[in-house]
Structure formats: structure tokens, C-alpha cells
Design goal:
Blueprint (H helix, E strand, L loop, with lengths): L1 H9 L14 H6 L24 E2 L24 H15 L1 H7 L21 E3 L10 H9 L39 E6 L2 E6 L4 E6 L16 E7 L2 E7 L24 E10 L2 E9 L8 E8 L17 H14 L6
Length: 339
């Protein structure tokens, strides 16, 4: 908890995401397409010749952009000027909470949440065309109905009533590559034959070999799966399989329906550095056991060399799980008999 508050209170405002001011056509395009001249721009190379993707690429500034597109937008991928102005006003108010709390000698959600900066994207999901998660299969529906977390309105009896994020294990994939309310740092480090993706939230590291080694035996299952990578021209392509199927596909929150995963989950990510300060990130998700069809997300990641990870000390002084269980036991013991 201390580390989380330190993140919010220590970080200064980060450079603008691929957003724009209303009516600025050039900046508007930047939210959804590569910068002008990107086709002729050549990414830097590492000393051993790979495209250089290294640096801090926090997803923080994408907060405020929904994963799923509101149904009212239909298949429209970008906001109008009026809609963008509304988003900018809303985020300005949310981001002002920190200063308001300092002024009034309080500490609340303003010290906790990083709400990002406005951009034109109506959703992070771009396929299906409506920008929404596809329907679940019958098995997906069954599995979703059994999933619980700290957001569930249930009596808590055991640790397994909480999901892996509640228990400080993992956000899982693909959720770990999406922005969160805090600690959304992503760092890319490279070495000959490897790309390493460090994640600030839940202190995890993805090691991606590039040497063409075969996949792991299917019997070996892991929380973040097992990744294999290759460069397709200037684009890093990462295929990840061997998941254990025990983490949600997306972050569970208030009113959010849990989306399950299975051991058949397969991710294909594409990272293309299109400018000195920008990576275009794409993610394709397929899991035929729980999803009726695959889906795809796409969004920009912007370089911020000043961003620094804070220790995500999730277990340190974290008594939330115990408190949930003890409170449920107390409420059950002192419940009034039904009339």
C-alpha cells in the first residue's frame, strides 16, 4: 500500500499520449495511426542488429480509455471533437482530485488512481468491429459463473474465494499488458537472443527467447504462459501458449463480469517502433474453450525515460484477504434470524 501511494505522489505528469486538442486533425490522427513519415523512419538497432525497443513504455496514460467500446459508438473507432472534449473534461476533473486532497489535507482516491490523458480511441479493442469482447462459449459461461474475487457480493470463507490479483500472484495475460489504475509501468530490455518485458504491477517479468527453440511440453503450464518471439522485419512478434487457465482474461472490477481463460489460451503480440517515442502495440487473443471467436486490441505505447518502477509490495502489511474472511465470519455469526 505504501508503495502504491508513493507512485501516485511521486510521479510528475507524463508527456502527452496519442491524444490531441479538439479540431487538431494532425494530432487526432496520431491517436490511431503511425506518425507522419513513419514509413521512412528507421528504428534504431541494438549492437547485435535487432530493432531497438528498449525503454520505459508505461501504459498509464491510456487510463480513461475503455477496454470495450460502449455500445452507443457502434463500429466507430474514434471520438468526435465534442466527445473528445467531454472525455478531456472528465479526466481533468478526476486528475484534479490529488491537488484537491492536498489542499484539504486529505488522502483518498486522488492519491491512488492515475487517470491518464485524453485520446481519441473509443476502445482498446479493435476487433470484432464493434470493439467489444466476443460472446462466451457454453464452457466459458459455466466457468465465468464460478469465478469470484474481492468484488463479489458473497461471504468469503477461504483464500480461493479471491482471484490471483487479490492474492498478489498475477494479473495474468492479456490483462497485464493493459493500463490499470496505478503501477502501469512496462519496461523493455534486450540482450542477444532475448527480449525481456518487465511489468511493474505484481512485479513480474516476461522472458521472450528469440532463438527459435521449440515450445515447452504442453504439460508445463504457467500463470503467464510461455513466450517465443521473432522479428518480422522491424516488428517483434511474440506467441504465448502453455497457460494454466486459472487467471481472468481481463481485470475484474465493480460491475464487471469475470472473463475466464483456459489452458488453450493463445496470444500473438506485435510491437513495432514507429517513432523514437512510440511503439504501436497489437494483441490478438484466442481461446476456443471459452470464447466464441478471437479478439484483438491495438493502442500506442509512448516512451517516458523519466518513469521509474516502484516496488509493488503487495503482500507487505496486506491484511485485506484475512479481513474479508473474518468480517464474513462475524456477519454470519451475528446475523439476525429471518422472520
Amino acid at each position: 500500500m505504501t508503495a502504491r501511494f508513493a507512485v501516485i505522489s511521486s510521479l510528475a505528469a507524463i508527456g502527452l499520449l496519442a491524444g490531441c486538442t479538439a479540431g487538431d486533425d494532425a494530432a487526432k490522427a496520431r491517436a490511431t495511426a503511425a506518425p507522419a513519415g513513419a514509413q521512412s523512419w528507421m528504428p534504431p538497432r541494438t549492437p547485435w542488429g535487432d530493432p531497438d525497443l528498449q525503454g520505459m513504455w508505461p501504459a498509464t496514460e491510456l487510463n480513461g480509455t475503455p477496454l470495450q467500446r460502449p455500445e452507443s459508438f457502434g463500429e466507430r473507432a474514434t471520438l468526435t471533437d465534442e466527445e473528445f472534449a467531454e472525455r478531456a473534461k472528465r479526466l481533468e476533473g478526476l486528475n484534479a482530485r490529488y491537488d484537491d486532497e492536498i489542499k484539504n489535507h486529505k488522502m483518498g482516491i486522488g492519491h491512488w488512481a492515475e487517470m491518464g490523458r485524453p485520446n481519441r480511441l473509443t476502445s482498446l479493442i479493435v476487433e470484432p468491429a464493434n470493439g467489444r469482447l466476443p460472446a462466451l462459449t457454453a464452457e466459458g459461461e459455466r466457468k465465468s459463473a464460478t469465478m469470484t474475487s474481492s468484488w463479489s457480493n458473497i461471504p468469503f470463507d477461504r483464500v480461493s474465494d479471491f482471484n490471483p490479483l487479490d492474492r498478489c500472484i498475477t494479473r495474468g495475460l492479456p490483462a497485464s499488458m493493459f493500463p490499470f489504475m496505478y503501477n502501469s509501468g512496462i519496461e523493455i530490455v534486450q540482450a542477444p537472443g532475448y527480449v525481456v518485458i518487465r511489468l511493474e504491477l505484481i512485479h513480474e517479468t516476461r522472458i521472450v527467447p528469440l532463438d527459435g527453440r521449440p515450445p515447452l511440453d504442453p504439460a508445463i503450464r504457467q500463470w503467464l504462459g510461455e513466450s517465443r518471439g521473432r522479428f518480422d522485419g522491424d516488428t517483434l512478434v511474440i506467441e504465448t501458449t502453455n497457460f494454466n487457465g486459472e487467471s481472468p482474461m481481463t481485470i475484474v472490477g465493480p460491475g464487471g463480469r469475470p472473463i475466464p481463460t483456459s489452458a488453450s489460451l493463445r496470444l500473438v503480440e506485435r510491437l513495432t517502433r514507429v517513432a523514437a517515442d512510440r511503439i504501436n502495440y497489437e494483441l490478438r487473443v484466442e481461446d476456443p474453450v471459452v470464447l466464441a471467436q478471437p479478439w484483438k486490441a491495438a493502442f500506442p505505447l509512448e516512451l517516458d525515460d523519466k518513469y521509474r518502477f516502484f516496488e509493488y509490495a503487495c503482500h507487505e502489511d496486506n491484511s485485506a484477504v484475512r479481513n474479508f474472511i473474518e468480517t464474513s465470519r462475524y456477519e454470519r455469526a451475528h446475523a439476525k434470524p429471518a422472520r
